[in-house]
Write a structure and sequence with these properties.
By secondary structure, the chain is of the alpha/beta class. It has a single domain, classed as Nucleotidyltransferase, domain 5. It contains four helices and five strands, in the order βββαβααβα. Strands 3-2-1-4-5 form a five-stranded mixed beta sheet, with helices on both faces.
Length: 137
């Protein structure tokens, strides 16, 4: 479980992971994107991927899982994660249970993050425009 006392703040954070997922008509053709930036706001790893025909929520959660895997691969910790899905943020923080189809992704994300310093925050959609543009390409 995430220890709030080890939260990463912007002042001490070395990396930031922004994630976003989107689907046409909610259960249609979907994709997700993630971008990792360093402390100078330089791009470390922008990426977008098609997820097939899934829901908006699945695309959001899948983008997070793949973003975490990328951060682990590149050694980008400590990290601050930002996304515009309150369901996703609340589920990762264990404040709300995710729908059963998404709970396995939540559990995987928590397990992968557990050895690292990290934090997660909900941001407004308009504050997530860089990754939103990558996702919708």
């Amino acid at each position: 479980m995430h220890d709030p006392s080890s939260m990463v703040t912007l002042k001490t954070c070395c990396y930031k992971l922004n994630i976003d997922g989107a689907a046409l008509h909610n259960s249609g053709l979907a994709g997700g994107g993630r971008v990792i930036r360093n402390y100078n706001d330089g791009f470390v790893a922008p990426f977008a991927k098609d997820f097939g025909f899934v829901s908006n929520n699945f695309a959001e959660f899948q983008a997070l899982e793949e973003g975490i895997l990328l951060a682990i691969q590149k050694g980008c910790f400590p990290i601050q994660i930002e996304g515009d899905s309150s369901l996703l943020v609340d589920a990762i923080e264990n404040q709300r249970r995710a729908p059963w189809r998404l709970q396995m992704i939540v559990d995987n994300c928590r397990a992968r993050l557990s050895p690292h310093r990290w934090s997660i925050a909900h941001i407004l959609h308009k504050a997530n425009m860089v990754i939103d543009a990558i996702t919708k390409r």
